[in-house]
Specification:
heterodimer, A: TIM Barrel, four-stranded mixed β-sheet, 19 helices, globular, B: alpha/beta, Methyltransferase, Methionine Synthase (B12-binding Domains), Chain A, domain 1, Rossmann fold, five-stranded parallel β-sheet
């Protein structure tokens, strides 16, 4: 018998989500969304349940429901097994240098290091940084290539959300994915309120006959591109997600179309004081709880953006926000956490911070771990056996259990002052940096040599492709 | 009455600000005097309070709207009374490939409130269109905005093209992924991390700080 799992009570209930669902459907049917693409509008117009009014598309609830029912969320085994994991990184252009600790622009060398570090810690997700030392038309191709060459999970399951900024770029990444036997998807980011980026939509339109899985995401900002209340923003998020998914469902019938779990029902908070996105705030954490409730309601994979902070440094501010956010999300049932390594609302990537977060995740995971309730664990016989003033230190049970009974941190050590002085008075950041460097140096995973060679050939071809270069070059 | 007008701008009370402006014009007060002694001092206070984080975005936007509505009332009087000079002419745009406009709109609104004449070209704007607009209005400054890491790189080509076109306009850049380091690297004339600092920068670049 186990003691009852720790959990969180409260939040949106079924009746409330039923009501929000009904309102989202009503908004889609009556207000619709803007589809700034003639070809897509034409495709949509061919279907029953669609009303086109100028560039606005409105959908009947039954059709939206069909799109939602058709979506397949092919989660990886580690998610099915309920393992705790971190998604670490999402296209940062700046990073803290792992040697000097100084802020700088990310390079292709940083990309390799951070991917190896992430893989050593079993993290998943997208490529952590954008290599700013290579031309723009090659950046996203190199991010995929490097991720696939040096990691097992990265850019390879439903928890990735990598951009492919042009059709030509998407084709190269698709070709590489096929050569490497890796996952390829294309994502649509809606532009709140109620619209799409025409270019992004055009790439999806051109890819529509290839049977490619396509995902949809939106990021309405409370008070700016969505109503000021978090609940209102969540409702708009539902409305945009469902309507956008319906567009994909009708446009890309040969592929699986789904809501990206990475940003499912995202409702961003916004600082009117500093005019910035805000993550890790009180309200954003409340939003995460709504998000978890909605994912449970719609049976979507749960991954919470609890590892993101406004703090510019890996400091107490960052640690407090991420720990509280992750603990609360964990209590609400989340086991997957994203944006590991990101600081300053995603402007900076920090490798040593991934190491610290790994420790924080283990810390929280161990608080919430399952525990047996039994006669043996109450250890009644041991209590009887020890006489007054005696000790349990030499007990067989102590010897057998002491290593597994207590979680032993690697970073948050339990030293006393003298021991800490003796060990060099190192800060957590120093220790984490050393650990990161060691993990990178010892990282051994590498994709099959022939596959690597093939990826290299494709990349070399991409380098010389003037159409690819033009696809991301401004016309002057 | 000037103090009252100034207070109405600070409070973001558009109705009161336009009412007072109309009354002053009807009383024969010159538009330049209304602008310089009522509206601009009000917006200066708003700017200061925004910079010191006492006033927040929605409050500043209300003030900017009150300022704009009042300034509109002055325009018909400028020709006959002189005045109406601006701090400078700015062409602003979100670069090609990028459709995000919240930051750019805010900067545009704040610069207009501060006394610049704005030409806002919108989002996803080709470099040539920016250069053409800058030449057409004889711009002192060009403001480029980008939100995406892919489009921020377009700024480099944009600046090169602007310089190559012979335009005299200086170029200021901004947007979420932009840093001072990047702004210097692409040889822009300046970078501002937010809308208020964009005003300070713009004034400096046109020599009116």
């Amino acid at each position: 018998m186990k003691i009852e799992n720790f959990g969180l009570q409260g939040g949106l209930n079924k009746e409330q989500i039923d009501y929000m669902h009904e309102k989202a459907m009503w908004l889609i049917e009556t207000s619709g969304i803007q589809v700034p693409h003639e070809g897509v509008l034409k495709l949509l117009a061919e279907h029953d349940g669609v009303t086109i009014d100028g560039d606005m598309a409105k959908f009947k609830p039954e059709l939206v429901q069909q799109a939602m029912d058709a979506a397949v969320y092919d989660v990886p085994d580690y998610y099915k097994q309920g393992k705790w994991f971190m998604s670490a990184g999402a296209h940062q252009t700046a990073c803290y240098d792992l040697e000097t600790g100084k802020l700088k622009q990310a390079t292709s060398d940083d990309l390799v290091k951070f991917i190896k570090l992430g893989d050593a810690l079993d993290t998943v997700g997208s490529a952590p940084v954008v290599p700013m030392d290579v031309p723009v038309h090659l950046q996203h191709i190199l991010m995929h290539k490097t991720a696939w060459e040096n990691s097992r999970y990265r850019c390879n399951d439903i928890f990735e959300h990598m951009d492919k900024p042009s059709y030509e770029c998407a084709n190269y990444v698709h070709e590489m994915a096929q050569a490497a036997g890796k996952r390829f998807t294309f994502g649509i980011w809606m532009i709140s309120p109620k619209s799409f980026d025409a270019h992004n939509l055009d790439v999806a339109y051109r890819l529509r006959d290839k049977g490619i899985p396509m995902w949809l995401a939106t990021m309405p900002q409370a008070g700016v591109t969505a109503p000021i209340s978090i609940l209102g923003t969540v409702l708009q998020s539902m409305y945009e997600h469902f309507a956008g998914l319906t567009v994909l469902y009708l446009m890309n019938p040969k592929g699986n179309n789904y809501i990206s779990p990475n940003d499912a029902f995202e409702a961003n908070t916004f600082s009117m004081k500093y005019i910035t996105f805000v993550y890790g705030s009180v309200e954003y954490i409340q939003h995460s709880l709504h998000q978890i409730a909605l994912c449970k309601y719609y049976d979507l994979p749960i991954i919470v953006k609890s590892l993101l902070t406004s703090s510019q440094e890996p400091d107490a501010h960052a640690a407090a926000e991420m720990s509280i956010h992750t603990l609360i999300a964990g209590l609400a049932g989340a086991r997957a956490f994203r944006c590991g390594g990101l600081l300053s609302t995603g402007e900076i990537y920090c490798g040593e911070w991934v190491v610290v977060l790994n420790e924080i995740l283990q810390y929280i995971q161990n608080i919430l771990k399952e525990e047996e309730f039994s006669e043996e664990r109450l250890m009644i016989q041991d209590i009887i056996d020890v006489g007054p003033g005696g000790t349990y230190i030499d007990k067989k049970s102590t010897y057998e259990m002491f290593r597994r009974e207590y979680w032993m941190p690697q970073l948050f050590e339990h030293t006393n002052l003298g021991q800490w002085l003796d060990l060099g008075q190192k800060t957590i950041r120093q220790q984490a940096r050393e650990m990161a460097q060691k993990l990178i140096a010892e990282h051994s995973y590498e994709i099959d040599k022939d596959v690597k060679k093939e990826l290299g050939k494709i990349y070399e071809r991409a380098k010389k492709d003037s159409d690819l270069e033009k696809s991301l070059k401004l016309e002057i | 009455m000037f103090e009252e007008l100034k207070a109405s701008i600070i409070a973001g009370d558009q109705e009161k600000a336009t009412g007072l402006t109309t009354k002053m014009l009807n009383d024969g007060i010159g538009p330049q005097k209304i602008l310089k002694e009522g509206l601009v001092p009000g917006m200066d206070v708003v700017g200061e309070k925004f910079r010191s984080y006492e006033m927040w975005l929605p409050e500043v936007i209300l003030s900017a709207k009150a300022m704009k509505a009042s300034t509109e009332l002055l325009k018909p009087y400028w020709d006959q009374n002189g005045g109406g000079e601006t701090l400078g002419k700015i062409v602003i745009a979100t670069v090609e490939g990028d459709v995000h406009d919240i930051g750019k709109n805010l900067v545009s609104m704040m610069l207009e409130s501060a006394g610049f004449e704005m030409t806002d070209l919108g989002v996803n704007v080709k470099i040539q269109a920016i250069i053409d607009a800058a030449n057409r209005v004889d711009a002192d400054l060009i403001g480029l905005s980008a939100l995406l890491t892919t489009t921020m790189l377009a700024m480099k080509s944009a600046i090169k093209a602007i310089r190559g076109s012979g335009s005299k306009a200086k170029v200021m850049v901004g947007g979420s992924p932009i840093t001072q380091e990047y702004a210097s690297e692409i040889e822009s004339d300046g970078f501002a991390p937010d809308a208020l600092r964009a005003i300070t920068l713009a004034k400096k670049l046109v020599g009116k700080s």
